[in-house]
Amino acid sequence: MTHTVAAEQAKCSTRIRSLVRDLRLQQDKQQSQNMNRDHTHFEIRHARPKVRVAVFGSFYRGFHVLSKFLEEQLRQKVEVVGVATDDASQAFVSPGKRVWQYPHTLDEREMVQKLARSHGIDVYTGRVKTPEFYERMDQVWKPDLCIMATFGQKINATLHQKPPLGFFNLHPCIDDHWPSKYVGGNPFQALLDEGKTYSVIAMHHVDDGFDTGELVAYSERIAIPPNAGVVDLHKLTSPFAARLAASEIEKIIDKSFTSPHTRASNQPQAADRP
């Protein structure tokens, strides 16, 4: 009798231990699922929508800037939604006063639009101060930020006031004073005429003037080689311009997601876009 009771007690203890073990395993599994769900929700809450960028650029500066925004590091943060570029055969881009007056190839004329189209990016080569282009900006591109890099049309307030994170330009000059006296469509020639030994690229906000908007940053100094011409300087300085734009725009983007004021007023709203 005593042996039977002891055996039953042992069986009962075994079943209890088994039930406790199963309960603990179930609790651990549930806890793990909860942690995974919370982590997923955290990632969703903190995922950044890509910033929509429009590039207004041509020739080597436009090519290098666009190339930079298509590199993997920046593609994680931005989406190039449109490219406006010069049609150097059209008088409205003032080809006789700008880089297009110097010898160049057809490939150099078209390299920006070819690069954009090879990545499926919408390209525009017409006049930008038109109802057609305003509609394209408002309804198709919807940029959060615009960057200009060798572009032959003046940007008016209707355009430069649209993007919530800003409309910027990359302009060659020297770093002695801002706004620079080297304004307009051919600053490299002015630098060469005055015998300057270096140039910098200024990134600045676009306003209603010619290269007068608030300065964002300068690139490092770039030495001007002996006997260099305007086209040589475009080729030489364009990678510097692209690195400057990438660095400063990354800062602007990061700030837009960390500053409470900027988040409230300027943060891209992915839900508002198709």
Q: What does this entry look like structurally?
A:
This protein has 274 residues and is of the alpha/beta class. The chain has one domain (51-272): Rossmann fold, CATH 3.40.50.170. Helix content is 47%, strand content 15%. The chain contains nine helices and eight strands. The chain has helices at 2-46, 59-69, 72-75, 106-118, 131-141, 157-160, 187-193, 230-258, 260-265; strands spanning 51-57, 78-84, 123-124, 145-149, 167-173, 198-205, 215-218, 222-223. Strands 1, 2, 3, 4, 5, 6, 7 and 8 form an eight-stranded mixed sheet that branches. Helix 4 links the parallel strand 2 (78-84) and strand 3. Helix 2 (59-69) runs parallel beside helix 4 (106-118) and helix 2 runs parallel beside helix 8 (230-258). The radius of gyration is 29 Å and the shape is elongated. 34% of the residues are buried. Residues 39-45, 262-267 and 269-274 have low confidence and may be disordered.
Count of individual helical segments: 9
Shape category:
elongated
Overall pLDDT metric: 87
CATH homologous superfamily assignment: Formyl transferase, N-terminal domain
Structural class by helix and strand composition: alpha/beta
Radius of gyration: 29 Å
**Which CATH architecture is right?**
3-Layer(aba) Sandwich
Structural features:
alpha/beta; 274 residues; 15% strand; Rossmann fold; 8-stranded mixed sheet; disordered C terminus
